[in-house]
Input
Amino acid sequence: MENEKTPVWKSAMNYGAIIGVVFVIYTLVIYLFNIYPTSFLSGGLMTLVNIVLLVLGLVYSTKHYRTHMLGGKISYAQSLLFGTLICLFSSIITGFFSYLLNAVIDPEYQVRMAKAIQDSMVEYMTNMGVSDSQIQDAIDKMNGKMPSALSSGFNMVLWGTIGGFIVSLITSAFLKKEGDPFADLDQAENI
Output
């Protein structure tokens, strides 16, 4: 009973756009308030917020798609495909915004973030009694790994889709809703 007028990719694109815009707004809030993941706690909290937003978006989108497009039933594979496509489309939007932020809006943003993380790391290592030469080696390694704005955007699309696939593996297990297998047996016995 699938709706022939709305293919899976179109619905996934629509929901992916919505989730992508939510992530762009979240990124803007982080940017405007100069919030940097300078500790395990702040980095972990930011990651947790990302995961919660993604799970909520996937659950709502998949339930809505299941109810309104598939007549209330969705297999695990359909749910997994739908969730992964949503994550692909939302990652394209967030990756494009990441590129704009780092290349056009504020080209120094990555440098400031890396500097804040580096300062936090140096303070932590100093407090742990790490030698100055080891701290300098760590700083040198960090400074050599600054990605370009374009590669950051591409990485966001790649890892956003892979992460979304992993989250969809889990959410699909809870969202699948297939027909009653015994109903088909009852109908066959009545024939």
Remarks:
- The chain has one domain: 8-185.
